[in-house]
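Researcher: Next sequence.
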Amino acid sequence: MNVTRTGAKGSQLRKEGSTQKDSAEHEGYAGVHIPERIAEKDDANTSKSGDKLLEKIVSRDNLNEAFKRVKANKGSHGVDGMGVDELLQYLRENGETIKQQILDGKYRPNPVRRVEIPKENGKKRNLGIPTVVDRFIQQAIAQVLTPIYEKQFSENSYGFRPKRKAHDAIRKSQVNIDDGYEHVVDMDLEKYFDTVNQSKLIEVLSRTIKDGRVISLIHKYLKAGVVVKHKFEETELGVPQGGNLSPILSNIMLNELDMELEKRGHRFVRYADDMLIFCKSRRSAERTLTNILPFIEQKLLLRVNREKTVVDEAKRIKFLGFSFYSRKGQTKVRIHPKSISKMKAKVKELTSRSNGMGNDDRAMKLKRYITGWVNYFKIADMKKLLQTTDEWMRRRIRMIFWKQWKRVRTRFDRLKSLGIHDQKAWDYANTRKGYWRTSNSPILATSLNNTTIKNLGFLFFSDYYRQVTV
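Model: Next structure:
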């Protein structure tokens, strides 16, 4: 490894929130403090080196690339509290020892830190945040496995794959619908990442990966456990969602389903664990669902959510936040109502009068959210939606400023500075109308007009949409 000193320093897990050190720039790799249990004797069979895949994983070039990606992605700390900024210096000091421990089969990953992310339905999704060193090692593994498995993956799989994205999955769905496959099986795999059978996954991996040391290392990550509210829990099932390995492991497992569907001659589109199977009639779709369930549940040992898995017309389902409709004989795409509601809830949160956010910070966060949202949904027909959303958002922004001005004298001075005549400015400064009602007044629409709001740093949905669709 490209390090300045060798020798791992055995250290105990650091408490969350511990101070972080500044590190140098992107020169070598990075590393976190690794606990002593890393050097425990490996009891797995790692004698079969196969095609020396492990040596490729720990090669200098692969590790350098892994570090760059982990550094660029940033992310939160793991159970030891170490941040990405500490990664470089730590690996300079301990990199060679870590590499040798991996080659000797003695490396022990840390458990992941459990984080719960709210879902649209009010429930929560479990994420597992590995330590920075484990993210670094997982990324190195994923980089070597990706070109191997890309040759095996289906053309109908789009999630977590190079040069493929959700837009491609939506466009392929449009093609299928236009070809007459207007009914779908909308498959819902229940808590997929939490319920993957690890033994089955290892079996599938072993068909391609002949280096037993790599299989052993991946197995250790699956068994590393999770820390929930400072309490360790074992992980007998699942692939922790949030690690750098979980996307490719997810695709490797579900590629078994892809191959089975292709063998049976079905049209389908899969993005991670979201899948649509396209059929020409409802009866055909119902028959397809009945026939594929035993394979998923008995062969792959996955759970299908029977309540959420439905057979319906393609235009009635939600897929990746989009929905389909027909216009002049062609299938078009629009944003699903649930996605619109979620967007408006976020804008409402960012434009709340009482969230304690400064105007510059608010403008920056709104801009960041709008650019990400529009970039994702830009393939949908949404011109009118964005226009009405902008009008509503601008009214909320005016309401914020009106509340901040608060005092009569302040309102009077601000309105005058924005070009309102003295008498009208004084009359409005003394209004008893509520904030929301006043925000829709001609006076505020004239003073805090669209140009003024833009000059204050705010971005509008419609303006950015025009930029990215020109």
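Model: Residues 383-405 form the longest helix (23 residues). The beta strands are 112-118, 124-129, 183-188, 226-228, 231-233, 267-271, 274-279, 310-313, 322-327, 330-335.
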